[in-house]
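> tool_call: predict_assembly(chains=two)
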Amino acid sequence: MGFIDENEKERISFVKKWAEYVRTHSDKDWSKQQNVIINSALKSADMTREQFFKMKGETHYV
Amino acid sequence: MKFIDSEHIEINRDLSDLDAFTIDFTTILKKYIDYVIISGYVAIVLGRARASEDVDIIIPRIDFSDFKRLYKNLKENDYYCLNAEDEEIVYSYLEENLAIRFAKIDTIIPNIELKWIKNDFDKIALKKTINVNIKGKQIFISNLELQIAFKEVILKSPKDLEDAQHLRSVAKEYLDHSLIQEYKEKLHGFY
């Protein structure tokens, strides 16, 4: 098994474990932890409109 | 998280900035037209541990006069369209089946990616929605079976396969597994 396959296998394993955590803990508990990931990612995102459209491969803007 | 029935989920979660943004936008949108949220945010609102820079939303075709009223209301609530400012240009993108994006003034991320329905699967997504109640606020997401099938058959990136796995795991007792398979077979034939 190559590195990418192994890495993806580990990621899927984490996804399953986290989903089980979500299922077995209160919404307040898991969402508090999830919000750290989401809010910090949004805060650190800093790009221009042009950079964003380029990243998305979209060209329909003026 | 409580799966009440196939059309209702209740989540007593703390809102992330992405949740607050999505609820704010869709509260305005639903005054003018039906909508359904699809793709990554469906997994995220149900607990997937990842962020997203945009939220994908499908709407039925809307005529220009209704669109102008929606656009005006969005602008009055500090939204702008990233693609263009002129409402006729923005509307022309929708007519060309292109997505348009809205963000809060002076920001790029997060943004809403809004597009018209363009095929039978979009119609199913709009018809078979799930009403998600988040602390008294409501949003409408696509049925999970269609999202899982689409991510596993069409999109297939690691991120999409992980989203599908999350949905399968978090909602395992509530999913119609034969419906997922049915959608997968239809999608194979369609794309």
